[in-house]
Amino acid sequence: MGLFLSLERSLALMLISLITVCTLSDCYDPLDPNGNITVTFDINQWIPEGYVARVTIQNYYQYRHVDKPGWKLGWTWAKNETILSMAGAFATKQGNCSSFKFQTPPHSCEKSPVIADLMPDALSENMPDGCCHGGLLAAWAINPSKSFSSFEMTIGNLGANPNVQAPINLTLMAPGPGYTCDLIEDTDPTVYPDIGGKRQLQAYRTWKSTCTYSSFIANQAPVCCVSLSTFYNPKITSCPTCSCGCREADKNTVSCIREGYSAPESDSFDNNDIVQCTDHMCPIRIHWHIMTNYVTHWKVKLTISNYNYERNYSNWNVLIQHPGFSQSTTAYSFNSAMLPSFGFSDEVALFWGIEYYNDELLYAEEDKVGAVSTQILLRKDLDSFTLRNGWALPRRIYFNGEDCQMPLPDTFPMLPNVSSSLKPTNPVFLLCIYLTFKRLFT
Ligand SMILES: *[C@@H]1O[C@H](CO)[C@@H](O)[C@H](O)[C@H]1NC(C)=O
Ligand SMILES: *[C@@H]1O[C@H](CO)[C@@H](O)[C@H](O)[C@H]1NC(C)=O
Ligand SMILES: *[C@@H]1O[C@H](CO)[C@@H](O)[C@H](O)[C@H]1NC(C)=O
Ligand SMILES: *[C@@H]1O[C@H](CO)[C@@H](O)[C@H](O)[C@H]1NC(C)=O
Ligand SMILES: *[C@@H]1O[C@H](CO)[C@@H](O)[C@H](O)[C@H]1NC(C)=O
Ligand SMILES: *[C@@H]1O[C@H](CO)[C@@H](O)[C@H](O)[C@H]1NC(C)=O
Which range is the signal sequence, renumbered to this chain (predicted)? Predict the structure, then answer.
């Protein structure tokens, strides 16, 4: 009776937490609940019929970066604004400027301009600080100094007594769809340090909007899956079949086309990948191998494999949730950092490549995949460490911020029956794990 009650209770608890996580995952990532990309417009100077503004795009996502081909920022002007000039970025269309006579042609007369970043080699004089990264923004936890981008624009055509208004309908492609931006609102003016921090300058007016990512809106097919193995069992648990799509019936083809985003209204952002044909069809596979069990430590080998034929991943990152990361953790061939776990009982560690060594995950060739790997040494918490019940296997893995498909717990490599003293698997524990992972398949 007691067992039955506790089973029922944990079932109910699991269901409640499942529902919360499922609802939340459509809105934001529970492992990075404060992540966002903030877009700030700082007006720093009034000019006749307009103003000069500095626009800053700041990526506050811990492990979600803006990759090639880079961000594109769009909005709709509230009035008759015209971009007279721009430094550090460019509007993709000049639009109809035919009504501007006898003056330098404006940079863009579009009602809804779209702005893209310049490449680093476009640097010339008068470029604002923090400009020209080819639209790339690093993740906040990895490289805060490269997590923002700035450009300057001079706005005119607002009439003699301008009553300036923030633009509306901000859109951020970073790259492709997935981001939703709030209304642009007036906030406290930005303060800048001057004279080495001894003096503070203040913007005349500051407008802000935050943009948040949802893989549901991005309509992103899963990009990665997880496979597992251990030293104590020869069985290798492969990625779940059809994790990222199903391979065609013809098993002889070597390369398959995997469809990524499907967003017809996006600016022809094509994310179809040519990948090696596998049963999981994922462009990325992450393998967790439990290598060694020492007295005070245990060791894992982590391998990230790229099954794309044409795509390298620069500045890749992998996020892993595992209770073992609460103890001292050393990754030999990757950079690593612990992240706040926001009330989850299992710790979260972020891994990324070492510059000029393995920060580029190369594409696959013929029958060989591109891969990077590291060994990770973890200290044991002797109270919780166990090889039983799949405890030493990861709970959740993300690649570049996207949730990876985990195998089901009933396929995990199990400890062999060395002695009859080994307790049988606790059914409640298995059920809980099963429910947690089931979420990933819905
Ligand atoms: C955006 O992220 C920053 C940094 O995490 C945070 O301070 C700010 O409150 C966030 N904004 C919103 C609207 O969530
Ligand atoms: C925009 O310009 C047109 C023509 O110059 C003018 O009629 C109109 O009132 C202006 N609109 C605003 C919102 O200022
Ligand atoms: C361009 O703008 C002018 C003046 O606003 C207008 O007369 C003309 O029809 C526009 N041309 C096009 C192609 O829209
Ligand atoms: C802003 O976006 C909304 C929703 O897409 C649209 O209905 C509205 O017309 C847009 N406003 C302007 C001025 O473009
Ligand atoms: C991937 O990286 C390799 C080696 O740096 C380079 O030769 C190749 O052109 C890159 N491929 C793509 C698609 O960027
Ligand atoms: C382990 O023991 C259980 C129960 O005694 C048995 O059902 C199972 O087949 C055994 N597994 C292996 C791998 O020997």
Answer: 1-27
